[in-house]
Amino acid sequence: MVDPDEQNHERSCCPIACALDHLGDKWTLLIIRDLLLGKKRYQEFLGSPEQIATNILANRLKKLEAAGFLTQQIYQKNPVRYEYVLTKKGEDLRQVLQALVEWGKTYYPGTEVFKPYG
Question: What is the CATH number of the domain that holds 16?
């Protein structure tokens, strides 16, 4: 169920525009992909082949948390370190990414589907 307080649309009431307001840059869905494949920690995201810059990764993780796609959990106390876990909202993107995988395999022959992490 969607919270009625979340009905403040940034650009438009179009559901595609609303989704793109949170997911439409070139890095966000790749971070979601990595979370769906089992990555949880900052350094694990940095090991992805697309080589996201640290400042962009930190920014996108904060934005994804603020938008309700993921949460932080402490896994080390001294120094404090976090791992990231998808919420239901984030996990529900699995089918969307799977559709993109199938579309990409059709129109970009020779691409690879990444295996789960770990």
Answer: 1.10.10.10
How many structural domains comprise the chain?
A: 1
Position 76 in a domain: yes
Tell me the residue type at 25: D
Q: Is the pTM of this model over 0.70?
A: yes
12-34: b (≥16 Cβ within 10 Å) or e: eeeeeebeeebbeeebbbbbbbb
Residue 117 counted as domain residue: no
| Angle between the N-to-C axes of helices 94-107 and 28-36, in degrees from 0 to 180, rounded to the nearest 10 | 110
Q: What is the pLDDT of residues 17-40, one digit of tens each?
A: 999 999 999 999 999 999 999 999
Give the tokens for residue 69.
């796609």
Record the tokens describing residue 11, joined without a space.
């650009």
Is residue 112 included in any domain, yes or no? no
Closest to 67 in 3D by CA, of 92, 100, 34, 99: 92
